[in-house]
Amino acid sequence: MSIADNKKLVRRWFDEAWNKGRAEAIDEMCAPHGVVHGLDGKEVGGLDVLKALHAKFHAAFSESRVYINHIVAEADMVAVHWTRTAVHSGDALGFGPTGRTIAFGGTLFVRIENGKLAESWNYIDQAGMLEQLGQSDVPRAL
To answer: Where are the beta strands (DSSP E) in 6-96?
Structure first.
């Protein structure tokens, strides 16, 4: 795939999996042997970790929207700086919904292999997210 195709795939990933909430996008766009670094407080996980996080996030938040601030690609790697807004409307984080609209950011580095997301490195401002929810003194991973 070209660099432009890789960037298009990653934009589609954010739109389909996260903005539209389509869990099926994980199987459609990720390599079966995919590796995920930095989610749910774990150093490395597979697609099952990603699927569990996706379900947990969408159970905790509604009206979620990811905005791509910057996207840069070289060869098979794509880097994204993103911002997300969402309404805390569920109790999947271990505490009741606050109804608060929050905004937090993160970065993703993803390696593309044969037109699929094969390995990703994720950095999410969980501390900022929890602070906005009034939970900054409670250590937990999303």
So the answer is: 30-37, 44-45, 61-74, 77-88
Which tokens sit at 120? Answer: 């990703």
Per-residue tokens: 10: 């990653």
| pLDDT tens-digit map of 35-93 | 999 876 666 888 988 999 999 999 999 999 999 999 999 999 999 999 999 999 999 99
* Domains defined along the chain, listed by start: 3-132 (3.10.450.50)
Residue 2's nearest CA partner among 81, 117, 112, 119 is 112
Q: How far apart are CA 2 and CA 19, in angstroms?
A: 25
Decide: pTM greater than 0.85. Answer: yes
**CA atoms of 12 and 77, how far apart (whole Å):** 15
* Dihedral sign, Cα of residue 34, residue 36, residue 42, residue 48: negative
